[in-house]
Amino acid sequence: MPYRQPSAEGAPARATRRSGSRSAPPPQLTDRTPPVPTVWGRRRVLLLNATFEPLTALPLRRAIVLVVCGKADVVHGDAAGLVLHSVGTSVAAPSVIRLRTFVRVPYRARVPMSRAALMRRDRYRCAYCGARAETIDHVVPRSRGGEHCWENCVACCARCNHRKADRLLTELGWRLLVVPRPPRGRHWRLLATVPDADPQWLPYLGEQVA
Questions:
Q1: Domain segments of the chain: what residues?
Q2: pLDDT digits (tens, 9 = 90+) for 89-112
Q3: Has residue 207 got a pLDDT over 90?
Q4: Which residue from 105, 109, 115, 121 has the fewest beta carbons nearer than 10 Å?
Q5: DSSP code at position 129
Q6: Is pTM, for the whole model, over 0.70?
Q7: Element (DSSP H or E) covering residue 116
Q8: At a CB cut-off of 8 Å and minimum separation 6, what does 155 contact?
């Protein structure tokens, strides 16, 4: 029965329930609740044409759909042995898949520049001293009319980047160890959009990026 709490004179008594007789409702999830990251959103799978030419990096979910539907075959499985389980079956996560039918892809000559691709082009070595590169430098500084392009950007160590600042190479008496040029090949277009490539992809991306 409800317990009546004593009240002040002239005020009606209020019926309340004893503490602990009813728990608070659980918190409700809303649209603003951040989603929990899953393997579906993080993993990428290298897609090869029927000729073993690299095409693009697919989300893991899309890659599994292609394999299950018989449109692609698994070339390399996940190096860590990742297996995805559903209600009725289990599927080994692929790292590299190959289309069963050749797909013609329009060729675009100019590869878009990105930090990941530029570092791979220069093999993570400073273009001025050969040390381990940590950043990117504009050979002709932007403040002096230099462009942000393959021909004017090089990998650079922090020490050389600090010493060079906004000066020209002729003012420092420096020389480039290699002449910066745009990379060629469709695999470079893929590297421009994928910062970290799976080691199992490298044989298909060309020896120059391994």
A1: 39-109+185-210, 115-172
A2: 777 889 999 999 999 877 666 788
A3: no
A4: 109
A5: T
A6: no
A7: helix 115-121
A8: 118, 119, 121, 122, 123, 124, 125, 126, 127, 133, 135, 136, 137
